[in-house]
Amino acid sequence: MENSTTLFLARWRNSVHPKLKKIEIRGRHREGDPRERAPRDLPPRVRKLLLVVRQFGAGTIREDDKGGQDEVCAAIEAADGGGRFKEDVWSRPGGGGGISRVLQDGGVWEKAGVNVSVVYGVMPPDAYRAAKGVKDGADDAKPGPVPFFAAGISSVLHPKNPFAPTLHFNYRYFETDAPKDSPGAPRQWWFGGGTDLTPAYIFEEDVKHFHTVQKQACDKFDPSFYPRFKKWCDDYFYIKHRGERRGLGGIFFDDLNDYDQEMLLAFSTECTKSVVPAYIPLIERRKNMPFTEDHKTWQQLRRGRYVEFNLVYDRGTTFGLKTGGRIESILVSLPLTSRWEYDHESNPSIPIDGGVL
Predict the structure, then answer these.
(1) Tens digits of per-residue pLDDT, 13-23?
(2) Any coiled-coil ranges, and where (predicted)?
(3) I need a labelling partner for 74 at 20 to 30 A (CA). Which of 68, 81, 135, 201 fits?
(4) What order of strands is seen across the sheet that includes strand 250-256?
(5) What is the phi/psi pair of residue 110, to 5°?
(6) Which residues are registered as beta bridge partners of 317?
(7) Catalytic residue among 17, 158, 168, 295, which?
(8) 3-class secondary structure for 43-103?
């Protein structure tokens, strides 16, 4: 697993910004050779991971070779026409860190967040169960802390105009590493992620375009991916206590390790690259449409559903909270504004150009 993880990190570097080398890691540091910057008391595997993380972007990211975070942020700023991202480079006390970029109160975006992270360390069994999406007693982890490593990119984009849809995407790699007969989870790796659309008002041409791009990305690797991952998305983004889906779907997968590791990394990268062509054309169509206060109220009510799912059911949110993750980065997915009304019923008399979700 050590070699495969190092390969993964080397191939994933284009999704990570050079500023990751500024992350502070606990332990002794020396100037000069980056191979001497890792604490010498770390286990060999973790030490190697740390060395690779420290060299992310060190002469590997060119101006014409942008990573996923750069590409998405550039497209968002261009569509906004004036707003700019605030960037935070952060460290996780338990190991690793990341970069959070947030654009708030722009011309088009109420809130747009795009994060990358590379974290490792140990997590309690309940965090492992959250990461795997299993119930107590149904997993293969023994009592005790679970060594883990995770890397990925995630984003949620909330536009101001109620006719412009919200978008979420997340692509990640995860592994656990407990030797045989030791406490914790067994050695294993998997990929997870997806891209999904959550409009307040439905425009069939937008939905068709979005799903067409998702299918094209999937079909480059396996024609079974799109129907399989589309259904998975519909089933996952379901608000059980409301009896309704969060949005209009997309693709979603998790715990995926039954294909070649390099193939799954290439697939995740392709899906990340498909975000801009799938989503930005919808924003350009809808961002300047006139709307009323009634339209805005309905958008706020639908955002309430979004918040409910993220705080109650989302595996990524639960995992981040249980592993002591950075709260600002974990909750960046929540909109600036949302609304709950007692026993609200949608008003079909509201004049709209698209259908009500």
Answers:
(1) 433 434 444 43
(2) none
(3) 201
(4) 86-91, 96-104, 109-123, 146-159, 166-176, 188-198, 250-256
(5) -70, -45
(6) none
(7) 168
(8) CHHHHHHHHHHHCCCCCCCCCCCCCHHHHHHHHHHHHHCCCCCEEEEEECCCCEEEEEEEE
